Amino acid sequence: MGQSHLDQAAGIRSLAARLGSRFRGGVVLGTSTRGYVLGDRVIGLPIASLWQH
Fold first, then answer.
1. Which of 12, 16, 27, 48 is the most exposed place for a label (fewest CB within 10 A)?
2. What is the 3-state secondary structure (H, E, C) of 1-53?
3. What backbone phi and psi angles, to 5 degrees, belong to 25?
4. How many domains is the chain partitioned into structurally?
5. How many Cα atoms within 13 Å fall on the side-chain side of residue 18?
């Protein structure tokens, strides 16, 4: 069974908490087919979005 979206973002959410206002935003790339919000200033995007225009 795969990880949940929130589990996949645990590292970047931890970084955001450590940096506070210095954290501008983050992206978690995955195999999903659409984007989703993972939290404040953190989003998930399909890895394929790197090659799409």
1. 48
2. CCCCHHHHCHHHHHHHHHHHHHCCCEEEEECCCCCEEEECCEEEEEHHHHCCC
3. 160, 165
4. 1
5. 6
Rounded CA separation 41/53 (Å): 22
Domain boundaries, position 45: 5-50
Question: What are the beta bridge partners of residue 15?
Answer: none
Please give the average per-residue pLDDT across 21-27, as a whole number.
Answer: 96
Q: Which residue has the tokens 């206002």?
A: 21
Inter-residue contact 52 to 33 (CB < 8 Å)? no
| pTM for this prediction | 0.74
**pLDDT tens-digit profile of 39-52?**
889 999 999 999 98
Cα dihedral value 38, 43, 49, 51, nearest 10: -140
